[in-house]
């Protein structure tokens, strides 16, 4: 498993420990009971701390699943 994905899974497990494991890669607000707006902001903050950057202001509205966040991090890592 890719190191960035493992780090992202750990971020999700920190905020949503009840939904831990490999199923986390399928996580969305509809599939994780506690994924509300407050925990979404908490998740973004945990990811910012883990990866050492700040999301753009529109991130909370656009990054609404594990897949969205993983794609964002991948694109960010490959940007010049």
Number of helices: 4
Determine Rg (CA atoms, Å).
12 Å
The proportion of residues forming helix, as a percent range, comes to: 55-70%
Low-confidence regions: none
The oligomerization state is single chain
- Give helix and strand order, one letter per element, not per position: HHHH
**Average pLDDT rating:** 91
> How would a crystallographer describe the biggest sheet?
none
Number of strands: 0
Distance linking N and C termini: 24 Å
List keywords for this structure.
80 residues, single chain, mainly alpha
Topology, pairings included?
Blueprint: H1 3-15, H2 37-51, H3 59-62, H4 66-78
Characterization of the model:
The structure is a single chain. The chain is globular, with a radius of gyration of 12 Å. Helix 1 packs across helix 4. The chain has helices at about 5-15, 35-50, 60, 65-80. With about 80 residues, it is mainly alpha-helical. It is built from four helices and no strands. About 55% of the residues lie in helices and about 0% in strands.
């Amino acid at each position: 498993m890719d190191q960035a994905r493992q780090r992202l899974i750990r971020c999700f497990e920190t905020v949503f420990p009840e939904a831990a494991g490999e199923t986390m890669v399928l996580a969305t607000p509809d599939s994780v009971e506690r994924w509300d707006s407050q925990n979404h902001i908490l998740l973004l903050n945990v990811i910012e701390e883990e990866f050492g950057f700040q999301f753009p202001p529109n991130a909370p509205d656009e990054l609404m699943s594990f897949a969205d966040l993983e794609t964002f991090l991948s694109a960010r890592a490959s940007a010049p």
